[in-house]
Amino acid sequence: xxxxxxxxxxxxxxxxxxxxxxxxxxxxxxxxxxxxxxxxxxxxxxxxxxxxxxxxxxxxxxxxxxxxxxxxxxxxxxxxxxxxxxxxxxxxxxxxxxxxxxxxxxxxxxxxxxxxxxxxxxxxxxxxxxxxxxxxxxxxxxxxxxxxxxxxxxxxxxxxxxxxxxxxxxxxxxxxxxxxxxxxxxxxxxxxxxxxxxxxxxxxxxxxxxxxxxxxxxxxxxxxxxxxxxxxxxxxxxxxxxxxxxxxxxxxxxxx
Length: 256
Ligand SMILES: CC(C)(COP(=O)(O)OP(=O)(O)OC[C@H]1O[C@@H](n2cnc3c(N)ncnc32)[C@H](O)[C@@H]1OP(=O)(O)O)[C@@H](O)C(=O)NCCC(=O)NCCS
Description:
By secondary structure, the protein is α+β, with helices and mostly antiparallel strands. The protein has one domain (about 5-250): Gcn5-related N-acetyltransferase (GNAT) (Aminopeptidase, 3-Layer(aba) Sandwich). Helix content is about 30%, strand content about 25%. It has helices at about 40-45, 50, 65-85, 125-130, 135-150, 175-190, 205-215, and strands at about 10, 20, 30, 105, 115-125, 160-165, 195-200, 215-230, 230-240. The strands form two sheets. A six-stranded antiparallel beta sheet has the order 1-2-3-4-5-6, with helices on one face. Strands 7-9-8 form a three-stranded antiparallel beta sheet, covered by helices on one side. The termini are far apart. It binds coenzyme A (COA).
């Protein structure tokens, strides 16, 4: 019998793999990453329609980068599954620090599926986004340290989100649905997420649209945030507070 701690994830009866089905796009599911996905990452990450809007993946993106990324996300997914496994005797659903699923796949009628994108919700490590605009480097580092130290379940934890979807699937409402589903089905109830600080390069209307449609609001622009391929990029900071949840972390600090 499947571990009830996986709720609301479903389990593929054939492969035993857990998955989350999107609320509105019923043929789209989110699963753990798979080794076979690594063969696809380089072509996706070397496509200008993708890398143009991402600050962190290396460019050009090689098979080694793909393996390193896979090792990281697989370890995160496995860690969450291990915690859920360890709690399977508990009658209450536990909170976990990560999400076991992140690879977005379209299911075909013949039962196969294809990898079409990625979405991750994780604890924010970026002091720059969490600290006030005029904070110096020490203050930013302190915000990052405090956020890392907060106990799971603390509504003041700042989380963040990152995503992409392959270009042939853009503009069909899939990422709006993926974020909505992952946020409300897993992040809020199973990770205790109450506050998210995310960002997109200025001008990334697709990403800003996804955030806005999920109730994120723009709080500021960080000018000249990063230089990518010789171009300085401004960053649009988008924040989300769960309706009815406590105020965001910075709002009750005496140094605001
Ligand atoms: C950003 C991204 C994930 C959006 O995914 P998507 O599934 O195409 O987004 P949606 O279809 O849910 O669109 C959300 C909203 O933004 C709008 N939108 C989407 N792409 C747009 C674009 N290129 N220009 C203007 N608006 C756009 C949509 O029209 C929609 O609003 P609407 O419902 O009012 O029409 C996708 O474009 C992508 O992967 N881009 C490259 C990587 C990236 O930017 N990642 C995010 C980094 S912060």
